[in-house]
Amino acid sequence: MSRLFMFEKPLGMRDTLPDLYERKQHVRAAVESEMKRWGYRFILTPTLEYYETIGEASAILDQQLFKLLDKEGHTLVLRPDMTAPIARVAASKLLKEDLPLRLGYCASVFRSQQREGGRPAEFEQIGAECIGDKTVSADGEMIALSIASLKEAGLENFQLSVGHSAFVKELFVHILGTEERARGLMKYLYEKNYVGYREHVKSLPLSSIDTQRLLSFLELRGGQEVLEKAHSLIELGQGKEAIGDLEELWGILVDYGEEERIFFDLTLVSHMSYYTGIVFEIYAGQVGFPIGSGGRYDGLLRKFGKITGATGFAIRLDSLLEALGERGESGQPACILFSPERRKEACGLAASRRKQGEWVVLQDISGVSNLDACTKQFSDTVFLVGKAGREKRT
């Protein structure tokens, strides 16, 4: 083995050490339990998928996909997200009845990084998908469920930014004339480059009225009042319908009692190109980027031969842990140190305490070279030492 790579990992890959693993497990279990209480059944898809299906259906850039060949020469990819694989499963196996599917998942996804920059190439997502429901009620359920899940994980200080992809697209295409020009302008919004957005708008050959409309668009951020302002910028078509969706959504979230956490941001644009309707991002505490996101993706299932509505969300576990700080950390196990002649007694005591739900380490004292360091790492230490072990204990 080359000494250069003895302790190195591939770009963007991370080790999860015991303390972090236990914290993840604690938070994961809390969120899964909450989703199950809302009627969501969990699903797991393969880590490897065909490039021609999931690779092309996913909204992840091609250069971010991990690709490899199977022995028949087919191109495979490590799953870059969970929404596209779940859409595949739903369309092929689950959508047999005219009933909405409520599916949950917790799995790692893989996206290649071109440079380190602290960005992981493998990270764990936990999320939910509601497939087969075109109503705004389903969008409201996704937002309410994401809020309830974060609360159950112990997070208190967070807010959701909510927008509508159809509103942005309709407004930009109406003013700029083509979808290509609209995508060029939306790129500034995705990057949160509002200075660049303003400069680009001012450089466009538009009437003063249309230029002002595009500049005023950046002001559509705030409470329920921004929906009234949005009506003055759009005329007919999907843009008006989008505002109607958001107004209906507001009423739904009031019924859930979660309106205080909602911040409307009609400039919100997701990098996931399959979103077709209401979209949202979750921000928490001092974390400077979204810890989760979601939205409606009615067009995605068409790629798998089904025409139906769908909406969902995903939370990044590592980002959620960062937002939680030290909260949600699991306790340390206890330790029973024994000498060989008292092994049976030690095994019985350990079994008894484990049945009561405790974490217990059983350790032969002859295998410990530094007793002081050993006892410090446990919440409680019990010594069961006979005559043969007394010298070692001292």
TrEMBL record:
SUPFAM superfamilies: Class II aaRS and biotin synthetases. Keywords: Amino-acid biosynthesis, Cytoplasm, Glycosyltransferase, Histidine biosynthesis, Transferase. Its main location: cytoplasm. GO terms for cellular component: cytoplasm. L-histidine binds at residues 81-83, 111, 125, 129, 274-275. GO terms for biological process: histidyl-tRNA aminoacylation; L-histidine biosynthetic process. This is ATP phosphoribosyltransferase regulatory subunit.
